[in-house]
Amino acid sequence: MKILLVEPDFPIPPKSKNHKNFLPIGLLKLASYYRERGHRVKLIRGNKSIKDIKRNGDGRWYVPHKILITSLFTYWAEYVRDSVKYYKKLFPNAKIIVGGIYASLMPEHCREFTGCDEVKVGVVEEAEKYFPAYDLIQNANPYPIDYQIIHTSRGCERKCPFCGTWRIEPEFISKKSIKNEIKFKKIVFYDNNLLMNTYIENILQELIELKKKREIIWCESQSGFDGRILLEKPHLAKMIKEAGFRYPRIAWDWGYKEYPKIKKQIDILLDAGYSSKEIYVFMVYNWNIPFEEMEKKRIKCWEWKVQIADCRYRPLNQFYDNYDSRKKGQTSKDYYIHEKAGWTDVLVKQFRKNVREQNICVRHNFPFYSRSFEHKKFGKEIMRKLKGLENMTDKIRFLESIRVDYWFPDKIRYPPDNSVEVR
Fold first, then answer.
1. Which residues contact 119 (CB under 8 A, 6 or more apart)?
2. pTM of the full predicted structure?
3. Residues forming a β-bridge with 308
4. Nearest to 351, CA basis, from 406, 342, 333
5. With bands split at pLDDT 50, 70 and 90, how would you rate the model's confidence at 421?
6. Closest by Cα among 148, 143, 153 to 177
7. Where do the domains of the chain lie, and which CATH numbers do they carry?
8. What pLDDT, on a 0 to 100 scale, did the predictor assign at position 58?
């Protein structure tokens, strides 16, 4: 049987197609699964011409019997529908099956909206044990991959209202060991809650041994680390560091009053050997927490000199997202705006701007943000002189004397047209 695996033409920049956040790992596992059963498999990324699909390197024509199309976020549903429509027209006799996140969260909507023949809900268990067929994208120049993706667990026992993981993977399943799965020197973990794995200490110890032998270079946990578990088992932080995990992330999902707990989690990572600017704090904005409170949280991160990984909230049943950071005056008809919590288009974009500019300051140890400095309109000697001034009044006088735009991230910053803007 000939099986065509399709990643729809999602709005991902070409240089990010092979980025660790977007790799179609499910399709690559399915490719290995079907190959072992003697099927001929081909991976297509986007809606390609019939010549690109049919013509093999060996000169034979490739007409699929079955087409498996993956899906990602619900708000990218239209791209899945476009692929189903496109490949149905190209290969009318092929059976089309849609799987992935959107298909699993909204199976009935997916079936009706896309017009596919079948919807696959959840993880394809029989393909889980197979090593992904990275060769299908390995030669995708100029951006080949040099890492591998691993799950040590599936599911999450936390039931955060904005997350779909526990809906798609209701049972939490842990692996005892992963050392036999590792074939690359860079590892990205796709666990939704890595530290919740029952055997996490055994797994971290395996990674530590591999790191000592230089068989791995670094690891990343895409979804970060559960800070509540770090508070219960702070010794895990040192193991994480020894295992080579970079850019550790914790989540601050709830209100400002939680800051003492978040600070304790950060301190545990600092004690393990991480510098503050290596640490990221996940924050969901455009959600139930209003703009002013999110700004207070941002300012706390500025005090701690940690970076923020901001996540714009979109409901799990949102089927469109036309957010454009360059456009003014967008409304809830363009993308989801949590108006009940006081969010507006300008506040959404202002918070994102504040986080971005603050992160630049944290990364480069700048005391303030300046667009002029970011675009290198002034030399480093100006920054050195500024750092030598002891009090804020002198700093501001100096900046204004040389007519440099500036913003100190230690206060709430509202949009420019807001009458209560604080500089």
1. 97, 98, 99, 103, 107, 110, 111
2. 0.90
3. 281
4. 342
5. very low
6. 153
7. 1-139 (3.40.50.280), 370-401 (no CATH)
8. 54
